[in-house]
User: Fold this.
Amino acid sequence: MAANIVEGCAREGAKEYVNFLNLAFGSLREAGYLIDLAHRLGYLRDESAAKLDRQYNECARVLSGLIRSLGRPS
Assistant:
């Protein structure tokens, strides 16, 4: 996820940057799924899963806000 954001920063225009932010958001969603799966399979305790969920939600909120502030590419 962070690598997508860094790569997007290196691009010339806002449209390309937002595309990479959207890729980062997709990667974040994958991570959220894996957190849920690990919890359901018993690899994460309730407390650990809850902490990761809070961190996931904060990242999603911030990244979504950044994407909205820059506008979605057409």
About this structure: The domain at 2-70 is CATH 1.20.1440.60 (de novo design (two linked rop proteins)). The longest helix spans residues 14-40. DSSP finds three helices and no strands in the chain. The chain has a mean pLDDT of 92.
